[in-house]
Structure formats: structure tokens, C-alpha cells
């Protein structure tokens, strides 16, 4: 419920009550509206100290203070445990005390004390007397009428007894024994709500896309009410319509028709103010109440799809816990805005509330920024709430949340935590009659199966006529899942007309600052590092993959060649937005050479005009600037009608060989000098000395002016290894050539010139089926300081997570981030990097060097990422060595499935019969140690 200040009421109701206001004092406006007085703070960023006593665990057995709202573990009390995990469970309780003043002039008013959320059982007393029955259930707003318990004109005493574990077994099964950290305390705000005796308790609104308006107004003490009115105003502040009901009951229905409303959707979240007024027989206001609403229609059509405002939609969503490392489940509107913006930045249009109703400000932000919501009654893989508690909590959830246009579906529990006897109650309580899901189950019109393998998407099972919408899929773990596999999955899901979308698990790593361990972050092993973003919203690599795959602007794959005519085939994957409402900008860029200060120079820009309707394909046409073929990168940015960046795409304008040939220094014509020992050839070229093995031709040592550059032991094949047949050394004019021949015509050739350039060409037949193929070198990790490179970045890639990295000039310092486990420094330094043109390796106490890549589509493997403690299916196998140049790489799995189960992109690369020369693979590199 949104409460409006008196001056706002005065302005908004000016037309309705202008005559009345002329004769009433302005102060009387306060009698018409709800007055809210916070006893606690308003959220994690605004808290008030109350007296507090904890029964067990840390800081127990004594009265002290605690900020409210908060989770008491995060304030140094009690003990930690993970929902279904082992460890100490103190089952501690907390006692709160707080005094507050009540003005004398509140007599005659109705005063409720409102708790937005308490974990888990709450007994409330005012001045020593019970306010009402104990409330059971952590995530639900509840209130008591305390008008008769208050002392007016003086101080009052509030006491709240809180049990972290409920006395009701079904509440513990639904909320406490789950896959998340369990906290205790008054974790959401507490306030007094002061109303006139005759007042609107709440309203339930159904506002449709065609302008049809229905509202049930629940009135306390309606005897004095002669008329009920509602004024509908747009978010621009202009009044659009006034509807009224002259027959007044405790539940009064108002109906009306708004002509040509601006409808609500995630793409255009248009909102209205519905201001309800109770009028006496003289037309004077008795009470005024305001709700923010959106006109939109939700339809679920059997064996067809979800339709919003008559348009079939696909939900691109994520599951989200209310969680913060410092505050636990205590949140704030600022944190809600941050989370919503991150989701919107990933081109998501939906979020599932897992596994409980969120703070009401989160839903308000979903309304205003635009995100579809699945709101959820708690439950998790155990018997659900019993009928009595379940119905009470369901009533509280829908009463609070019913009017949010963002909510399009309800969830009755999760993964077996469904109380099926409540299914029909959703419709009884919801004026909008939204559909109910059993997440994980084939129920009603939906199949919401969780964590299906890629093959499940063939839709050849037993539910092929159901609407398919996995409410959890691609379970993240460390750097696996989410973006890894998403392109494969989404290709099948987006092209299946009965698939209505899906929800990734989960938004953020749930690492808690353990106040019993010097604020050390704890994810309970591999149970909670499942997020797309880190615990403090650090963007992991999958963030950008999802942004790319779920971009509503889709570019057909193409390479830029000299014959490029400036055209791109594009597809509009918006539901309501024409491309003409978006802003496209093209940039033509030249990049600096390695070894210099990294710089991108924009040579030309152009704003592009594109007119493609939703669901249609068209052509994006660029005018090619003069000399474009001499430039390096074409980059296109797209911004939505609200100014949010949709995505950035980039294409190299030259092949790798064309670019590297521009950069490699011209030979001076000097000749290297060879000194031979029993096992090696020592090659001197100016200040650089190389050592090569006479046995196999491998580079064994590099020295520059007496300093060791620790690149060695390569090139070594990473698969399909063969025996050496011959190693030769000869001069070709002024260049020294060392060549190694393997059986089957595989081999490599070093070419060393007198200027210190070291050229390598390898030719090989990979194995028929290869997780990775190419060559590798040794370079000790402890001597790497960083790297700069031209290629795809800045994030590492996997075979099944290639999107999101874009072509450009990048740099990053060495880090040893173990994704989701330690460090949280992104982008991670170690791993695979795609489409590398050149890379400059920065040594730690050793000279830098540059390697130029002449071959197209080569992956640079930079060191070996440290493995998390419990990788499960996210475990990765890397080639031997440290620095690799590869034609193909392997994919990564998620928490429940190996990479091969996540779609064809993660399957090993296969190479056909390589008996013919043109089927062999080549890698051409040039090393510059100067």
C-alpha cells in the first residue's frame, strides 16, 4: 500500500474536492489519509536501535541493543546454520523491547501495528497485553489493531518475542529446512498505521489493457459512507477518469472504463494512481487511499502461451533470493533498485521470487522499472504449510501483493512443497484470477520441470501439449551454468511456440559475512555460490553472455570481408517495441599496437535508422566510411527507448594475418648466430638468446640481455601426440630454420631472424574427437604480472559460453579469483580467451614479450584456473602447460550436469579424415622478445 502525504492528497484531489477544501483547514487533510509512523528503521540502510535479549549462542543471556530491522546473526547474536545443512542449531529466541509515544489526538482513530516480516514466530505485546495471536511464518506482512491497548498522550511499551524456529512443524518444513541460509529476527520494518474510524482497509484491483477497471474496496465501519469514488491519474499527473459506486457495503465493487489507457509491460511500464475516497452524505471525504496500478491483461491460453495485452510473450527470467552478505535477508529499496537494474541490464524481463514473497519495495520497483514477477508462497521439498497456517499466510500474501501489475503468476510452494488444498484459494483471493504454478511439477496448463538436460528440449516426452516453462534451469555453480549452455538452450526454447520461457538459478552468490569469523565470507561450501553476480553484485562472465543471448536485438552471424556492403540481417525479439524507438550507433575504430599505451581511436560514427516491428526481421544498413578497410573494429551500440544499453556488438575488420602483418617489425637483414652443444642449439639474435632441443626442436630457454624470460617447453601437442621422426637445422638466406617432423606428416618449423623475431608454424592432425586441440608452452604462473591483448574479452570463455565477450583491445592484471569462492576480482585472469590477434605477456621481474597470431579463430589459454573446493560437474580439465594456442576448447558443466548434457556446443570437436593436406590444421605465431 502506498501512503500519500497530505499535500499530495490536496493536489491530487483538487478537482474532486475543491469546494470542500475551501471551507476545511488544510490540517484536516491528515484525517482523511493513513498516517504512518515507523517504530523501526525503513530498511538495511536506515535502522533504529531497540533493546534486545538473545537466549542462546553468541552474546546471549543479557539485555543489550540491536538495530531493527536486522537479522540477529549479522549483529553478533545466536548462531549460523544453513537450511538443510549440519552444524549447531541453537534454536535461539529473541526478546525485543521498544518504547514509543502516542499523541493524545490519536484517540478515536484506528491504530494498527504492522510487521512486514519476522523470523519466524512473533508474539507481540503492547503495555504488557497481547496484541493478538502469535504470528507464524517469516516472510509475510501481518498487523494487529492495538487502538484499545495504547496509552494516549504518553509513552507506550512494545515487546516482541521472536522464535527463530516455529512451534509449527509445517512452518519449519516450508521455510527453515531449505536450500539457503536461515536467520532470525525482526528483519523487515515495523510501523504504526493510523486511520480514521471509517476507513478503507485495502483494495483489490483488476485493471485490464482495454481500460476495463474493477476494484473491490474493503471498508471498515461503512455506516457513514454515502459514496465511494476512485480517481485514475496517469504517472504524468493528469487525471484520466473518475468512477464511483453509490451502493456501499463492507466490500464495495467499483467498475469503470478508461479510454485508451497506456498499458503496462516490462518494455513500457506505464503506471497510474488510483485514489479511492470515502464520501459522506455531504460529499466530504472520510478517508482517502491510494494505490499505484498498471493497465494490463494476463492470459494463459491452453497449449498456446502466455499473452500479455494480447501479445504472446517469452519470459527471460532469473530466480532471486532477498539476500545481502552484510544484512542477510534485511533489504532496502536502494538494494532492490540495484538488483532490478542488473536484471534489466542482462535483458531479462522476468524474475521469480524464490522461495517466499519479497519486500514490498522490490515489487514496487518491478512495477516501475518493468519486470514480470512470479510471486511465491513458501515451500521447499518437504511437506508444505498445513491448511490452517497455509491459508492464513496465503491470504496475507495476496492481500499485500494483489495490485502489482508486475505479478503475472502465483507459485504455490516449490519442488514438492505444495499444499494442493490451497490451489483453489488463490482464485478466491485474487480478483485478477491469475494462474497458479507448482514449480517443478507438471500441473495445470504448465510443465515447469527443473534442470532438464538439453535433450529434454526435444519435447518428445509425456507433456508435449503443456506450456513448457522451467521455473529453474541451468543451475549455476562457480563459473558453470547460466551462460554456459544458454545459447543452445535458448535456441530450442525460443523456437518452440509452446515454451513460454524459463528462469535461471540463481541471481547472486549467497555468501554471508560471518560475524563469528571476522566477517569472512561463507557460501557453505558449494551450496550457495550459484549466482550470475557475486555476493556484492560483482559481474561474472555469464552476466554478459546472458545479456548477449537474451538481447531483444539479434544480429545474424557474419564475418566482415573486403566485400562487406554495410548490411546486417537483424531480428526484433522485443514483444512491444519497434526498433525505430531504439537508438543505434556505429563506431569505426583503430587500435594501438602492443607495447604502447593502449588506445582506441574512433575514426567515424553514425546514428542508424532501423524500422523493424516486434517479431519481424529486417535489414540494418550502414554507410561505409572512406577507408574503412584500413580500420580495425566495427562496433554497434543499441539503446532502448528509456536510455538503457541493450548490447554492444563488435566485429574485426581484418583477418588475424592481415592485422599481425601490419604490426610485425620489418626485418633488418642481420643473421642469427648458432652455437651447438650436445643437446641444444644456442641461437643469438642481438640481445636475445634462444635455446632449442636437438632431440625434438622444442624451445627450452629464452634470455634477453642476461634476464631469463621463462617461456619454454613448447610447442607440445595437447592431444594426438606422435613420435618425432626428424629434427633439422638450416639457414634460409639470413633466417635460421629449425624444423621438427613427426610421423603422419605433423610438424612445426621455427624461423629465427637476426632481429630477435621468432616465427613458428605448426601443422597437425588433431584427434578425431577433441576437448581441445593445438599447442602449449610452459610459463610459471608466479612470474606473470598481467597481459594486454587484441581479441575477444575481457572475460574468459568456454566452448559453450562464447557470447558476451566482444572483440577489442583489453588489459588485465594477474589475479587468482576462484569464481564464487574467493577473491571476487573480475574479470578472472586465467582461462581461455577467444579470437586472439596478439597478446603481450607482462612478466613479474622478467621482461615482457608479445606473441602475434597469424591464424584466425585461435584461443589463447592463459594459465590454469584454480579449481574450487567442490567443483562437481563444473570441474574443468585444461591442457598441460601454461600458455596455449588452440583451435578448439572444452565446455563447462553446471551444478547438476556435465558439460556434454548441456547441448551440442559443449560436445568435443570432431575432425574428419585428415589424410589430405588441406584438412590439416595450422597455427602460425610470431614471438617478439624485443
TrEMBL record:
GO terms for biological process: lactose catabolic process. One of its GO terms (molecular function) is carbohydrate binding. InterPro entries: B-gal_small/dom_5, Bact_Beta-galactosidase, Beta-gal/glucu_dom_sf, Gal_mutarotase_sf_dom, Galactose-bd-like_sf, GH, GH-type_carb-bd, Glyco_hydro_2. Transmembrane segments: none annotated. It catalyses: Hydrolysis of terminal non-reducing beta-D-galactose residues in beta-D-galactosides. It comes from the Bacteria. GO terms for cellular component: beta-galactosidase complex. It holds the Pfam family Glyco_hydro_2_C. Keywords: Calcium, Glycosidase, Hydrolase. Gene3D superfamilies: 2.70.98.10, Galactose-binding domain-like, Glycosidases, Immunoglobulins. Residues 682-890 form the Beta galactosidase small chain/ domain. Its cofactor is Ca(2+). Its EC number is 3.2.1.23. Belongs to the glycosyl hydrolase 2 family. Monomer. This is beta-galactosidase.
Amino acid at each position: 500500500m502506498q501512503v500519500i502525504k497530505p499535500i499530495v492528497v490536496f493536489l491530487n484531489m483538487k478537482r474532486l474536492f475543491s469546494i470542500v477544501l475551501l471551507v476545511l483547514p488544510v490540517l484536516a487533510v491528515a484525517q482523511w489519509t493513513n498516517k504512518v509512523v515507523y517504530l523501526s528503521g525503513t530498511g538495511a540502510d536506515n535502522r533504529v536501535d531497540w533493546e534486545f535479549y538473545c537466549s542462546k549462542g553468541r552474546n546471549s543471556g543479557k539485555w543489550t541493543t540491536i538495530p531493527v530491522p536486522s537479522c540477529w546473526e549479522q549483529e553478533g547474536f545466536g548462531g549460523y546454520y544453513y537450511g538443510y545443512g549440519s552444524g549447531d542449531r541453537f534454536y535461539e529466541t529473541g526478546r525485543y523491547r521498544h518504547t514509543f509515544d502516542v499523541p493524545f489526538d490519536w484517540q478515536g482513530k484506528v491504530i494498527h501495528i504492522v510487521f512486514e516480516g519476522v523470523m519466524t514466530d512473533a508474539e507481540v505485546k503492547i503495555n504488557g497485553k497481547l496484541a493478538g495471536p502469535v504470528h507464524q511464518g517469516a516472510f509475510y506482512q501481518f498487523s494487529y489493531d492495538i487502538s484499545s491497548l495504547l496509552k494516549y498522550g504518553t509513552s507506550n511499551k512494545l515487546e516482541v518475542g521472536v522464535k527463530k524456529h516455529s512451534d509449527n512443524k509445517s512452518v519449519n518444513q516450508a521455510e527453515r529446512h531449505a536450500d539457503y541460509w536461515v536467520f532470525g529476527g525482526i528483519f523487515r520494518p515495523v510501523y504504526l498505521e493510523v486511520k480514521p474510524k471509517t476507513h478503507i482497509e485495502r483494495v483489490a484491483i483488476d485493471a485490464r489493457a482495454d481500460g476495463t477497471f474493477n476494484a473491490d474496496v474493503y471498508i471498515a465501519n461503512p455506516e457513514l459512507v454515502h459514496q465511494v469514488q476512485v480517481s485514475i491519474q496517469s504517472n504524468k499527473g493528469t487525471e484520466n477518469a473518475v468512477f464511483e459506486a453509490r451502493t456501499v457495503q463492507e466490500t464495495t465493487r467499483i467498475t469503470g472504463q478508461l479510454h485508451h489507457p497506456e498499458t503496462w509491460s516490462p518494455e513500457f511500464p506505464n503506471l497510474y494512481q488510483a485514489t479511492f475516497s470515502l464520501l459522506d452524505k455531504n460529499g466530504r471525504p472520510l478517508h482517502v487511499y491510494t494505490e499505484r496500478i498498471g493497465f494490463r491483461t494476463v492470459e494463459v491460453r491452453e497449449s498456446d502461451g502466455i499473452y500479455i495485452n494480447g501479445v504472446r510473450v517469452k519470459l527471460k527470467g532469473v530466480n532471486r533470493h532477498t539476500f545481502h552478505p552484510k544484512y542477510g535477508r534485511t533489504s532496502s529499496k536502494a538494494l532492490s533498485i540495484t538488483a532490478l537494474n542488473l536484471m534489466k541490464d542482462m535483458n531479462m524481463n522476468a524474475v521469480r521470487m524464490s522461495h517466499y514473497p519479497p519486500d514490498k519495495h522490490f515489487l514496487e520497483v518491478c512495477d516501475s522499472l518493468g519486470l514480470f514477477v512470479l510471486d511465491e508462497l513458501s515451500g521447499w521439498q518437504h511437506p508444505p504449510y498445513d491448511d490452517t497456517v497455509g491459508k492464513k499466510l496465503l491470504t496475507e500474501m495476496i492481500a499485500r501483493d494483489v495490485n502489482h501489475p508486475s505479478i503475472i503468476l502465483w507459485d504455490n510452494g516449490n519442488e514438492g512443497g505444495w499444499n494442493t488444498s490451497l490451489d483453489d484459494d488463490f482464485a478466491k483471493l485474487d480478483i485478477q484470477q491469475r494462474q497458479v504454478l507448482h514449480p517443478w511439477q507438471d500441473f495445470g496448463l504448465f510443465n515447469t520441470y527443473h534442470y532438464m538436460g538439453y535433450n529434454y528440449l526435444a519435447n518428445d516426452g509425456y507433456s508435449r501439449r503443456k506450456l513448457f516453462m522451467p521455473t529453474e534451469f541451468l543451475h549455476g555453480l562457480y563459473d558453470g551454468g547460466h551462460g554456459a549452455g544458454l545459447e543452445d538452450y535458448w535456441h530450442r526454447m525460443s523456437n518452440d511456440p509452446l515454451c513460454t520461457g524459463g528462469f535461471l538459478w540463481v541471481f547472486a552468490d549467497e555468501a554471508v559475512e560471518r560475524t563469528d569469523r571476522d566477517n569472512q565470507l561463507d557460501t557453505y561450501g558449494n551450496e550457495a555460490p550459484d549466482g550470475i553476480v557475486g555476493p556484492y553484485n560483482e559481474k561474472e562472465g555469464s552476466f554478459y553472455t546472458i545479456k548477449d543471448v537474451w538481447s531483444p536485438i539479434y544480429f545474424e552471424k557474419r564475418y566482415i570481408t573486403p566485400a562487406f556492403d554495410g548490411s546486417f540481417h537483424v531480428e526484433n525479439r522485443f514483444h512491444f517495441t519497434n526498433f525505430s524507438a531504439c537508438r543505434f550507433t556505429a563506431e569505426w575504430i583503430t587500435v594501438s599496437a602492443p607495447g604502447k599505451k593502449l588506445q582506441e581511436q574512433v575514426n567515424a560514427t553514425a546514428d542508424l535508422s532501423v524500422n523493424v516491428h516486434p517479431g519481424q526481421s529486417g535489414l540494418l544498413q550502414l554507410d561505409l566510411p572512406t577507408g574503412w578497410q584500413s580500420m580495425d573494429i566495427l562496433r554497434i551500440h543499441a539503446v532502448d527507448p528509456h536510455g538503457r544499453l541493450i548490447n554492444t556488438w563488435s566485429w574485426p575488420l581484418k583477418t588475424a594475418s592481415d592485422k599481425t602483418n601490419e604490426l610485425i617489425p620489418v626485418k633488418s637483414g642481420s643473421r642469427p648466430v648458432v652455437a651447438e652443444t650436445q643437446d641444444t642449439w644456442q641461437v643469438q639474435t642481438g640481445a636475445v638468446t634462444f635455446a632449442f632441443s636437438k632431440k625434438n626442436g622444442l624451445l627450452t630457454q629464452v634470455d634477453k640481455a642476461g634476464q631469463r624470460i621463462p617461456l619454454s617447453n613448447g610447442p607440445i601437442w595437447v592431444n594426438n601426440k606422435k613420435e618425432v621422426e626428424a629434427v633439422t637445422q638450416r639457414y634460409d638466406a639470413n633466417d635460421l630454420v629449425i624444423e621438427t617432423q613427426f610421423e603422419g606428416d605433423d610438424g612445426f618449423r621455427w624461423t629465427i631472424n637476426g632481429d630477435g623475431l621468432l616465427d613458428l608454424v605448426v601443422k597437425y592432425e588433431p584427434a578425431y574427437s577433441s576437448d581441445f586441440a593445438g599447442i602449449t608452452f610452459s610459463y610459471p604462473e608466479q612470474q606473470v604480472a598481467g597481459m594486454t591483448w587484441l581479441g575477444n574479452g575481457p572475460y574468459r570463455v568456454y566452448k559453450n559460453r562464447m557470447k558476451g565477450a566482444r572483440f577489442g583491445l583489453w588489459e588485465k592484471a594477474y589475479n587468482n579469483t576462484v569464481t564464487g569462492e574467493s577473491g571476487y576480482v573480475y574479470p578472472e585472469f586465467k582461462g581461455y580467451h577467444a579470437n586472439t590477434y596478439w597478446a603481450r605477456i607482462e612478466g613479474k621481474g622478467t621482461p615482457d614479450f608479445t606473441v602475434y597470431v597469424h591464424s584466425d579463430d585461435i584461443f589463447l589459454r592463459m594459465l590454469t584456473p584454480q579449481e574450487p573446493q567442490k567443483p562437481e560437474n563444473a570441474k574443468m580439465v585444461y591442457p598441460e602447460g601454461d600458455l596455449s594456442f588452440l583451435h578448439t576448447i572444452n565446455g563447462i558443466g553446471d551444478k547438476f550436469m556435465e558439460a556434454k548434457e548441456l547441448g551440442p556446443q559443449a560436445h568435443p570437436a570432431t575432425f574428419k579424415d585428415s589424410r589430405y593436406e588441406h584438412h590439416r590444421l595450422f597455427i602460425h605465431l610470431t614471438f617478439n622478445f624485443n
